[in-house]
Amino acid sequence: MTRPPAGTPYWDAAELPTQPQLHGVVTADVAVVGAGLAGLSCAYHLAERAPGLDIAVVDAEHPAAGASGRGTGLLGPRAGPAVDRAVRRFGPQTARRMHRASERAVRDVLALCARLDVPCGLRTGEQLVATRSSAGLAALARQASACRELGLDVPVLTPAGIRDRVGVPYRAALLHRPAATLDPAALTCALARACADKGVRFYGRSPLLALRPGDLVGPELVLPHGRLYAGQAVLAVNSAAQALDLPVGTVLPLEVYAVATEPLSAPAYEALGGRAGHAVVDAVPMAPYFRLLPDRGLVAGGGTATVPAGVGAPRLQAVRERAWSWLERWLRALHPDLARVRVTHRWSGRIGMTGDDLPVVGPVPGYDDVWYIGGCCGHGLALSVAHGAHVAAALLGEPEPGEPLPWHRSRAPRLPARGPAGPLLRAYVDAMGRIARHTC
User: Which residues form the signal peptide (predicted)?
Assistant: First the structure.
């Protein structure tokens, strides 16, 4: 079997709705820019709650072409910084609300999958945040203490408890529930089809070039071959906010890396938690993680992150090759039977990071009736769906069920992503990756 070209994700985007390019002048009640999970969740909840609304979804490529179709499919609770740091920054009450909101987001995705009847390899299980290093052990101890003080149900696993689940010699772990693994592209495409079934219009290969205040009502969206005038707009564009000069603070694009393997032997698959569908994330920031696939393959990610701005294409490709090679070596060391396992897919994706690890979900400053969603900091599978539902409720003027999002805001902190300080920021991210690789 020939390995697909480098950069090809394990997941396939299939059965998409018709997506002509946008030409000429088009109008809509609501324009959603970005056909990833956040934008499609927003369009879906708008169409479900207000069936007569005229909704147009516009994307630079097609649904699942971006981060939502290039992730690794780990569905677990986490929003913002680790819980101990959240307590120090925001106080115990807000930290507790943040964690519980992230748990609710996971449950909402599971409910959405059931409602859509998505054939996306969904496996509910547990997510272990584990460590084999002294630095990770100290981080887990701080998080475990904070969870106890906040009354959160996050059990601590001893090495024996970990071995009962995953046959890798981790020293300790925190057990997060609810959690699951799934095919992120399949979920994204299923949402797109559900939106189309509800009358949502799609325009593909139509990147947003500029956003302008409209002459009469709502914003004007400038596209390569036309204009879109809408009463309201949602910009679910994540780190593309930088290129559009949106006044939402710094949502830094980071390129992250993943690989997938051929099916493992039955003993290796079971030893790594195959029957229960666990996923294992290292406690050290940017450190590698893995999950298993329904076809008995394994997906691994992490270990390296790159700030792509200012990095030439040849150098960026060299960085990708090194990141993939390191991930291959790391996963082969997980279990003896993985020593010769063949890697079938190698790919990368862009996530949006903020200076304080919190997302940005709120109205765009200076624009009437325009909202922005982005900056999930690597936890976008659950949070994106929650953010789309949150913004849909806000646009319709409806109360949101449950507590409001604790991180509702319009701006992230500014980071020196451009100008003379840009190389220093890239060097810092590179150093964090080296530390993560060294400790694992």
Answer: none
Q: Which residues of 237-262 are buried (b: 16+ CB within 10 A; e: fewer)?
A: bbbbbbebebebbbbbbbbbbbbbbe
- Are the C-beta atoms of 343 and 3 separated by less than 8 Å? yes
- Cis bond upstream, residue 9 (ω within 30): no
Alpha helices, DSSP H, located in 177-312: 184-197, 266-271
- Pairing relationship of beta strands 279-282 and 289-292 according to DSSP bridges: antiparallel
**307 contacts 426 by C-beta, under 8 angstroms:** yes
Q: Residues in the chain with pLDDT < 70?
A: 1, 400-402
**pTM of the prediction?**
0.96
The neighbouring-strand residues paired with 226 are: 24, 223
Q: Which two tokens stand for residue 313?
A: 């294409």
Residues 6+ apart with CB under 8 A from 323: 257, 303, 304, 306, 348
Distance CA 163, CA 396 (A): 49
Beta carbons of 71 and 184 less than 8 angstroms apart: yes
Q: For the domain with range 252-347, which CATH number is right: 3.30.9.10, 1.10.150.240, 3.40.1390.20, 3.20.20.60?
A: 3.30.9.10
Q: What is the DSSP string of 371-426?
A: EEEE--TT-HHHHHHHHHHHHHHHHHTPPPSSSPPTTBBS-PPP---SGGGHHHHH
146-153: long-range contacts at Cβ-Cβ below 8 A with a sequence spacing of 24 or more?
Answer: 146/83, 146/84, 146/86, 146/87, 146/95, 147/83, 147/99, 147/174, 149/87, 149/92, 150/83, 150/87, 150/92, 150/95, 150/96, 150/99, 151/96, 152/83, 152/96, 152/99, 152/100, 153/177
What Å distances lie between residue 229 and 201, 216, 265, 356, CA to CA?
14, 10, 55, 34
The model's pLDDT over 134-159, given as tens digits with 9 standing for 90+, comes to 989 999 999 999 999 999 999 999 99
Q: For residue range 256-278, list pLDDT tens digits in order.
A: 999 999 999 999 999 998 878 78
pLDDT at position 401: 64
Fold classification of 1-73+183-250+354-409 is: FAD/NAD(P)-binding domain (3.50.50)
| Cβ atoms 299, 288 nearer than 8 A | no
- d(Cα 166, Cα 295) in Å, to the nearest integer? 18
- Could you state, in order of their start, the residue ranges of all structural domains in the chain? 1-73+183-250+354-409, 252-347
* Sign, Cα dihedral of 415, 37, 99, 128: negative
CA-nearest of 221, 188, 193, 189 to 207 is: 221
